[in-house]
Write a structure and sequence with these properties.
By secondary structure, the chain is α+β, with helices and mostly antiparallel strands. The protein has a single domain (2-187), classed as Cyclic phosphodiesterase (Cyclic Phosphodiesterase, Chain: A, Alpha-Beta Complex). Helix content is 23%, strand content 33%. The chain contains three helices and ten strands. It has helices at residues 7-21, 50-62, 98-112, and strands at residues 2-4, 27-29, 36-38, 67-79, 82-92, 125-131, 151-153, 155-162, 169-177, 182-183. The two termini are 17 Å apart.
């Protein structure tokens, strides 16, 4: 389950990737069109569970409403001494912690379906690069980057990922309006 980013936000993140790429050897950059906020990685969902799972996702989305996010700051996982993931943070602008509540509702729904609990606590971030195989990249210094334009998350999306040599490719299987109904997959704004 994920929140997709507006085209303008992805374009500004692509500019950040270019700026960081000058000093970021050893990183494989995520294609801008693939950037998204992962609410919960689901892994393989058995075919027989798909219909009830989609109802569970709709219920998780219906419990809250839209909220505003700003992409800002960079960091690495698991640690600066051994960086494997380079990320941009996401901060909720609105009061009320709706993003955390949504992630928690998705986690409860996943566990209610019999999926294993998430391995890590939810930390809102956008993965912009992964360490190249056998590379030992250095953690770039946070330039204090912040996207000047926050965006409103109106929906969450069920994404299917397919691994390719050039990186994962994502297909929207269903969209769920936050606080409302299911949206047809073709309703993407890009």
């Amino acid at each position: 389950m994920a929140i997709e980013l507006p085209v303008a936000t992805r374009a500004r993140l692509a500019e950040l990737q270019v700026a960081l790429g000058v000093s970021g050897s050893g990183w494989r950059w995520v294609r801008p069109e693939s950037l998204h906020l992962t609410l919960r990685f689901l892994g393989e969902v058995p075919d027989g569970l798909d219909a009830s799972a989609r109802e569970a996702w709709r219920g998780a989305a219906a419990g809250g409403g839209p909220f505003t996010l700003r992409a800002e700051g960079i960091g690495v996982f698991p640690s600066p001494g051994r960086p494997r993931i380079l990320w941009v943070g996401l901060r909720e602008i609105d009061p009320g912690d709706r993003l955390a509540a949504l992630a928690e509702a998705v986690e409860r729904a996943a566990c209610g379906l019999g999926l294993a609990p998430a391995e890590r606590a939810f930390r809102p971030h956008l993965t912009i690069a992964r360490a190249a195989r056998d590379a030992r990249p250095s953690a770039p210094t946070d330039p204090g980057w912040a996207d000047p334009d926050p965006f409103v998350a109106h929906e969450m999306v069920l994404l299917r990922s397919e691994l390719h040599p050039s990186g994962a490719r994502y297909t929207a299987l269903a969209r769920y309006r936050l606080g409302g109904e299911t949206i047809p997959p073709s309703g993407a704004d890009g």
